Amino acid sequence: MRFQSLALATLMAAAASTSPVPGSAQAITDEQMARIASLGLDKRGSASSVQARSINQPITDEQYAKIAALSVSERSTNDNGNGNGMTLEARDKRSNCAKTILGERAGGKGIWCPKSQYTNLVQTFCRSAATTDIPLGHETSDTYEITLTNQDHPEEVGKAGRVAFAIFNTKSDPTYLVTYDDCVDYMLKQSNTDSKCYGKKHDDTEGGYWSVDGVGLFGSEVREGGL
């Protein structure tokens, strides 16, 4: 533990020394984050900290199966000679609420995120994801802490929860370049007041996925339990 602390302090000091303006805040680079993660310190420790940042990871066969089960797309083969010819063709733009692709079960009774928290975290995620070039057949995602809506007693604080945002590139070959505006627009589909994923009674959302022509899926998974 002492070695990890010293290594982290050395890394952060090195990052600070590269700042062009004394006292200015500089973003930690992906290389630095990777080195921090290698120390076993993958949690950022704030109220909206990232638990598991996944950048351009291959979409697994299990995830493809879950995507296909959403009935928003179908898998087809386009042999382009490099062995990566799997794509998904959109059937429609139907949103799918409270669905799980990334891992453990999401959504369900009582597992809803207040719209105010959801909106703020969409902006946080999209600022982080913007300019990311996601290769075909890969995904980029982040997980943040939230406070779930207290469905039975909305005037009281709800249980600890988390929301995972993800972009799955199943159609754009060779890559899909994430832009902030498009990311926010697609991620907010599940919290818009005209969405079936939106809860009018408590002004919240249970999350879900939205199919985007030529790209794949943008969406979120709301879960119980903090980071």
Number of helix segments? 5
Structural class: alpha+beta
Query: In sequence order, what are the helices and strands, one letter per element?
Result: HHEHEEEEHEEEEHEEEE
How large a portion of the residues is in β-strands, by DSSP E? 25-35%
Total DSSP E strands: 13
> What is the arithmetic mean of pLDDT?
75
Q: Ends: how far apart?
A: 20 Å
Shape: globular
Radius of gyration: 19 Å
Give the strand order of the largest sheet, numbering strands 1, 2, ... along the chain.
1-7-8-13-12-4
**Poorly predicted ranges (pLDDT <50, ≥5 residues)?**
1-9, 11-26, 38-51, 72-92
Helix content: 25-40%
Please describe the biggest sheet, giving its number of strands, its sense, and whether it closes into a barrel. Answer: 6 strands, antiparallel
In short:
With 227 residues, this protein is α+β, with helices and mostly antiparallel strands. The chain has helices at 2-17, 30-38, 61-69, 115-129, 180-187; strands at 54-58, 73-77, 86-90, 96-97, 113-114, 133-135, 138-147, 160-169, 175-177, 198-199, 204-205, 207-212, 216-224.
